[in-house]
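Weekly puzzle thread! Below is a chain. First person to post its structure in token form gets bragging rights.
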Amino acid sequence: MQWQTNQGEIQTTIVYGWGQPMTGQNNGMYFYGQQGTLSVDRMFCGQGISFQPAGGEQIEVLPLPLRLKDQVPAVGDFIPNRWCALARDFVADIQEKASSNYLTFRDGWRYQVAIEAIRQSPGWTELPL
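Winning reply:
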């Protein structure tokens, strides 16, 4: 898989299942690259982002970007805050208000149309806008 940014290509491997374990690996997402492993640990009970250089044992804990923290309501601890953010974005979608960080029902419909077209068509298919 390749991810591209406006500054060039980034070689990326995404492993589902078994991969090169990181020291102290927990439940989370792990991105393995030439320079090392970037991990997002404890996805469902509080997040920790860390980096371990390739071939190294030392893990560098990275701070969660403040811009991400600022987008989440502070009504309690980690889990209630995320549920409140989800509810806020869900209601905004129903009221047809723009939200930059939440996919809409229309997005879901468009994805499903594309998935069904891929399943049913052996070649190119025109999709509705």
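Puzzle host: Confirmed. Bonus trivia for everyone else. The CA atoms of residues 91 and 97 lie 9 Å apart.
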